[in-house]
Write a structure and sequence with these properties.
Elements (H helix, E strand, L loop, with lengths): L3 E9 L14 E7 L2 E5 L5 E5 L5 E9 L4 H18 L6 H20 L8 E2 L1 E7 L2 E7 L3 E6 L2 E4 L6 H8 L35 E5 L5 E5 L1 H4 L4 H10 L3 H14 L6 E10 L32
Antiparallel strand pairs: 1-13, 2-3, 2-5, 3-4, 5-6, 5-7, 7-8, 8-11, 9-10, 9-12, 12-13
Helix pairs in contact: 5-6
């Protein structure tokens, strides 16, 4: 049994071309849990499928490379991740995501490379809840946050040229604030265009969940225009995760975001009962309450 959660999702074009924004939505998302899966397909349509998988897997992908290219990249990223979820519940979700990422990256590059130089790419921030823990992995400059007890922590680090330079103790050089790599395209600007750099414990992690935790995955259409204090305020006051996701998207657009905007918000409602002593008499062991249909809501808005 896994943690019982409520999830809200908003994936929006943003202000649109009439107001100086994007003409297409290159963002995508994945919500997969208890026999249901939601994402935007390759035609940009939000779809729901009845498919069995393991645990609760959520993700945000922000495509880049222009229309068709960025949209295809983000769509392929979440579709490939959905197939991983269908393999079942892993014992160590962080390790499963970290092992999957470079393999999927290499396979997708191989598929698109015969058509010419690989120009498409996407960020990818994914969180996999199994039992009472969550493993995560991150590529690019979308973000992953956790709020607990009214305090907000940013778990992911933006993978910019400056970030990698700091890790390697070297000068960042020009374009220090620019993203250094993306899923499918790869490249850290160091001559390894086909490779991804994922540092364990920095670009991956594991969370021990607590009841009341609020988790946020968002594209930089939000985090680039709404600071952490205002993100915390929205997460704290929202009555449910869908309200939080909607409010964050609205706030980003009100704050000048001309990008696509996506938020996936997860509220942890309860945790599974875990017996500390496996030899304890079953007769006196507490019985977990199984989730019902209304334990998890996953609304969305295109």
């Amino acid at each position: 049994m896994d943690a019982r959660v409520t999830i809200g999702t908003t994936c929006s074009l943003g202000i649109g071309p009439a107001h100086g924004g994007r003409t297409e939505n290159e963002d995508n998302f994945l919500v997969a849990l208890r026999g249901r899966l939601r994402l935007r397909n390759s035609r940009g349509e939000t779809v729901e499928q009845d498919i069995e998988g393991g645990g609760v897997l959520v993700a945000v992908a922000d495509g880049m490379g222009g229309h068709d290219q960025g949209e295809v990249a983000s769509s392929q990223a979440v579709a490939t991740l959905a197939r991983l979820w269908q393999h079942g519940r892993p014992g160590d979700p962080e390790r499963a995501l970290a092992d999957w990422l470079p393999r999927a990256h290499a396979e997708l590059r191989q598929v698109v490379s015969p058509s010419g130089p690989v120009n498409m790419g996407t960020t990818l921030s994914a969180l996999w809840i199994v039992h009472d823990r969550a493993g995560w992995v991150h590529v690019g400059d979308s973000r992953l946050y956790r709020m607990r007890g009214g305090q907000l922590w940013r778990l992911s680090r933006d993978q910019t040229h400056a970030e990698f330079a700091q890790r390697d103790r070297r000068e960042p050089g020009p374009n220090a604030s620019y993203p250094a790599q993306s899923f499918i395209f790869g490249s850290r600007g160091l001559g390894h265009d086909a490779e991804l750099r994922i540092d364990p414990g920095v670009d991956t992690g594991t969370l021990n969940l607590a009841v009341g935790d609020r988790l946020l995955l968002c594209s930089d259409g939000i985090s680039g225009f709404v600071d952490d204090d205002r993100i915390a305020s929205v997460l704290a006051r929202a009555r449910d995760p869908q309200e939080a996701a909607d409010d964050l998207v609205d706030l980003a657009m009100e704050s000048g975001s001309d990008d696509n905007v996506t938020a996936v918000v997860v509220h942890v409602r309860s945790l599974p009962v875990v017996r500390l002593d496996p030899d304890e008499d079953d007769e006196h062991a507490p019985t977990p309450t199984l989730p019902t249909d209304d334990d998890t809501i996953v609304p969305w808005d295109d």
